[in-house]
Design brief:
With about 270 residues, the chain is α+β, with helices and mostly antiparallel strands. The chain has six helices and 15 strands.
Length: about 270
């Protein structure tokens, strides 16, 4: 067994638990099916919030109201941030756009609360982490780096922090999906928020890029290049998510396109 850098998650050497996901996804470019396996009753899309100048989350609906645009299942942020003629008066309600590849901690917590009620195995889930995040790399440790400075004493030496993963961990097997490879971990759903770049005095969370429970009642994907999280599950699960006041959710279809040009109503 390979040790895990995350407190309650175990690094998995045998990635066969992900075979059903690998077998069920479509080709790269097949829309939602490139992210999630076929076979669920319903699919949904969680819109990652934008951020106001004060750091508060801003829903896409608030931005669409300001810009005169529409919220619908295939909505794209790049389309709704452009106001229609006669709209967009006053200061825009957001400062920073939604995060790509990252579901905010508060949103992830709200999502997991709903997901826990829709699985019989919340204590055993599988988590995929994209292996391309810069912070999981394996740079040499203890290396002094010289930074230029105007201080008359000269450049200031800075020591690199230790990598999040060891070479042994990074040499392990991968879950391979179209265009993406993932490290696999196993643990309770409650540990979903423990993934991230962690040190003695810092923690930068990273939501899992792919996760599902042992009983396969749902599957969640946060694609690296997208500002939305997609999931498949039961019709009841999707209804519960849409009704959740802490999340902004729209229904989705397995064949929905996910590229920026897919917003056919906000042109």
């Amino acid at each position: 067994m390979i040790a895990s850098p995350f407190p309650r998650l175990r690094a998995v050497i045998d990635v066969r638990p992900a075979s059903w996901v690998q077998d069920g996804v479509g080709d790269f470019g097949s829309g939602v099916n490139a992210l999630l396996p076929a076979g669920f009753e319903a699919y949904a899309r969680i819109l990652h919030p934008a951020e106001s100048a004060s750091g508060d989350p801003v829903r896409w609906a608030a931005i669409a109201e300001w810009s005169g645009r529409l919220i619908h299942p295939r909505v794209q942020f790049a389309a709704i941030e452009r106001p229609v003629p006669g709209a967009g008066h006053g200061r825009r309600p957001w400062e920073e756009p939604p995060s790509d590849g990252e579901l905010a901690a508060e949103s992830l917590s709200a999502l997991c609360e709903v997901l826990a009620a829709h699985t019989s195995t919340p204590g055993r889930c599988w988590f995929g982490l994209w292996d391309g995040w810069g912070w999981i790399g394996d740079p040499p440790t203890g290396v002094a780096v010289l930074w230029a400075t105007t201080d008359p004493s000269g450049p200031v030496p800075v020591t690199r922090r230790a990598p999040a993963f060891t070479r042994e961990q990074l040499s392990g097997p991968r879950v391979r999906l179209p265009g993406r490879d993932f490290l696999l971990f196993e643990g309770p759903l409650a540990a979903a928020g423990e993934i991230g770049d962690r040190g003695e005095d810092y923690f930068f969370p990273q939501s899992p890029n792919l996760f599902w429970p042992e009983d396969r009642q749902w599957c969640v994907s946060t694609e690296v290049d997208l500002n939305s999280t997609y999931l498949g599950g039961s019709t009841t699960l999707v209804s519960d998510l849409i009704a959740n006041a802490r999340l902004e959710v729209v229904p989705a279809s397995l064949r929905d396109p996910i590229d920026m040009a897919s917003d056919h109503l906000n042109r």
